[in-house]
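input
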Amino acid sequence: MSQETILRLNKLTKQYRAVKAVDQVSFEIKAGEIVGLLGPNGAGKTTTINMILGILEPSAGRIEILGKDLKTQREAISRQTNFAAVYAHLPANLTVRQNLYIFGLLYGVKNLQQRINFLLADFSLQKFAKTKVGLLSSGEASRLNLAKAIINEPKLLLLDEPTASLDPSIAHLIRQIIKDYVKKSGAAVLWTSHNMAEITDVCGRVLFMSHGKVLLAGDPKTLPALQGKKDLEELFIAVAREPLTFER
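output
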């Protein structure tokens, strides 16, 4: 039996006057897949994620999540998606537990207190449960953001630089939690990062973007050699500096 397609983009485009931030991007992510979306700053990664989240309206193209058109069935989709990003800050005047409780209510999470207790333990946040978010370190806040991102057990999880402010030990823990979550739930994950070792570790497939277009796609472990590069970092640098070399 083939895997269910969780996310499908078809010629997705976002144009700002004369600039195409995203230029006819098409790809799919199936259940159980973790896909890396890579590229230099300004490549169109965050714009793509914001369109998938419904924050930005596409200029053209189509987004399907769980077989539903985001444009016409956004409410039905919203409870089965979630995200975490370094720039998405949670309310600073609420405690860790209060934040999880509010977002749990928004997503209609059943057995909410039990779910919160599980997440506090899983993300090593028990001792901060009554701490206001504004008093957390950047690493603690990032862990809370990730806990919020899976509170509703989403089928599609969007992660924009999720471990950027974490020390290596906690970053490793977070990667393992996400991999375990995907294995258990069959969720699909779209993951952006500038840490190529991280991407190689967690992603089964990568998409390289530059100037709004997807230039390359493949297995992060084998794609560099196919392009004559020694590793993913060297390939990233080449795409960032010489994108026209990879134009399809």
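quick obs: Residues 168-185 form the longest helix (18 residues).
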